[in-house]
Amino acid sequence: MKIAIVYGGWSSEAMASAKNARSIEEVLRDKGYDVCMLEFGRDMVQTLRREKADIVYLCVQGKHHGDGTLQAMLEHEGIPFTGSGARAAALINDKILCKLLFDRCGVPTPRWTILSKEQYERGEFDYSGFGYPFVAKAPTQGGSFGIELIRSPEDLGKIAHVFQYDDPILLEEFIDGDFYTVGLFEKDGKLVTLKCVEGVETLSGEKVEKQNDLTLFTGEYGVEPPELDEKLLREMERTAEKVFKITGARGVGRVDFMSARDAGAFYVLEINAVPGLKRGSLMPREAAYSGVRYEDMVEDILLSAWRTAGEEEDDV
Fold first, then answer.
1. Which helix (H) or strand (E) holds 5?
2. Which helix (H) or strand (E) holds 183?
3. What is the mean pLDDT of residues 264-269?
């Protein structure tokens, strides 16, 4: 089996994608797999055919990359790949579509609405009626790209920056609380749910720097055991499983939460179809906390994709 690790491209997350790919490459080579590294390009299918790749380990992230774009190309060509299929990946990458699905399926999520650039420029939206503070988000961007905290009318000018990424955009109630995450991956045909952790510390032991009170996870991450009631933690893990299933996610994913301080409540922020998998990323650190070896998880994600491809061939 020849594995092509596809990474990079021209999205805002290209650098993070390359780091993930290098970590995965190291693991798979150590395990004896035949691996080639391929940077995402417009001739991707031809490149994969030329390399005679049997399966793609998908590391591309963001708009025009891991948002269903590459997945659709691979599905059309019949090339197996890790993670969610094109339809689910496209849904997961669109925060507005996810919000609609969360509301429809009873998944707790911060109050939200949609804002168009035309509404913004004409001053037609009632921001006070929606309520301050709130977060303006570009719905198709990942990480810390295209996101602004709007505390008061004086901050409304910041929204223009978000429209550089998308139109319309998402306005979301700001939850004053702590960040939690639950990773999931498939092993031997079964879903493995990692223990819920709080993602708050860097490797140096210092708090992750916050910009405008928004936690920005850039660089190396740390996790720590959450100081929440066990019942609430298990409920968050079950909710993560529900989100994974209703979005049609496959292979691997990570569901992010905010827990409101002193409220005993949690809210789903989003699900990531292509979560960071370099050793210092949140999900690998969560795996270590859960007693799962990083190397085994990386391989299980690969084998899950190979297994799925075989099952689909049997159904034809």
1. strand 2-7
2. strand 177-187
3. 92
> Given 3.30.1490.20, 3.20.20.60, 3.40.50.300, 3.40.190.10, which CATH number is that of 112-173?
3.30.1490.20
Q: Using pLDDT thresholds of 50, 70 and 90, give the confidence band for residue 82.
A: very high
- Residue 58 CA to residue 276 CA, distance in Å, equals 11
286 or 63: whose pLDDT is higher? Answer: 286
The owner of tokens 């970590």 is 23
Using CA atoms, how far apart are residues 163 and 117, in angstroms rounded to an integer?
A: 7
CATH-assigned architecture of domain 2-82: 3-Layer(aba) Sandwich (3.40)
Q: State how far the Cα of 284 lies from the Cα of 282, in Å rounded to an integer.
A: 6
214, pLDDT greater than 50: no
> In whole angstroms, what is the distance from residue 316 CA to residue 306 CA?
16
Its pTM stands at 0.91
Average pLDDT score over residue span 258-286: 91
In angstroms, rounded to a whole number, what is the distance separating the alpha carbons of residues 22 and 73?
23
Looking at residue 174, the DSSP 8-state letter turns out to be P
Q: What is the mean pLDDT of the chain?
A: 90
| Cα 206 to Cα 272: distance, rounded to the nearest angstrom | 25
CATH number of 92-107+176-305: 3.30.470.20
Give the range among 49-63, 117-131, 188-202, 290-304 with minimum mean pLDDT.
188-202
Question: Does residue 264 contact residue 208 with C-beta atoms inside 8 Å?
Answer: no
The span from the CA of 205 to the CA of 276, in Å, is: 20
Question: Average pLDDT for residues 97-122, to the nearest whole number?
Answer: 98
What is the C-alpha separation between 257 and 270, in angstroms, rounded?
A: 7
Q: What is the pLDDT of residue 61?
A: 85
Do 11 and 265 contact (CB within 8 A), yes or no?
no
Task: Give 235's contacts (C-beta < 8 A, 6+ positions apart).
Answer: 266
